[in-house]
Amino acid sequence: MGMLAWVMMGLAIWHFTIWLPDRFWGGIVGALIGALLGSVAFAWIINGFSVPGRHDTHLLTALDAVPGALIGLAIVWFAGVRSARVSGHGEPGLA
After folding, report:
1. Average pLDDT over all residues of the chain
2. Which of 62, 68, 76 has the alpha carbon at shortest distance from 17?
3. Contact 32, 14 (CB under 8 A)
C-alpha cells in the first residue's frame, strides 16, 4: 500500500506541470516518468529500502514522496533544457 501512496503522490505532483513551459526531456510523458520514478525512489530510500504494508501506511507515507517527485521533475526539466541548448534550439522566443 505504501507503493500505491507514493505513485499516487507522484502522479498528483505531475498534474501541476501543466502550469510550466514544456521543456521537459521527453515532453509531458518524460515529466510523468520523472515524477513517478523520483517519488518512488526517494520514498523507498527514506523508508529504509522497504515498502510499508497495508497497516503501516498513513497520510505521512504519501507525503514522503513529495520531495522525490520534485527532484525527479527537476532532473527531467534540466535534462530537457540542456538537450535543447545542445541541439541548437535554445530558449523559445530568445533567438
Report:
1. 90
2. 76
3. yes
Does the pLDDT value for residue 38 go beyond 70? yes
Which residue, among 4, 1, 14, has the nearest Cα to 68 in the 3D structure?
A: 14
pLDDT digits (tens, 9 = 90+) for 50-80: 999 888 888 889 999 999 999 999 999 999 9
- Do 72 and 16 touch, CB atoms closer than 8 A? no
Closest residue by Cα to residue 64 from 78, 49, 37, 46: 46
Give DSSP secondary structure letters for 17-36: GGGS-S-STTHHHHHHHHHH
- Ordered by start, the domain boundaries in the chain are 2-85
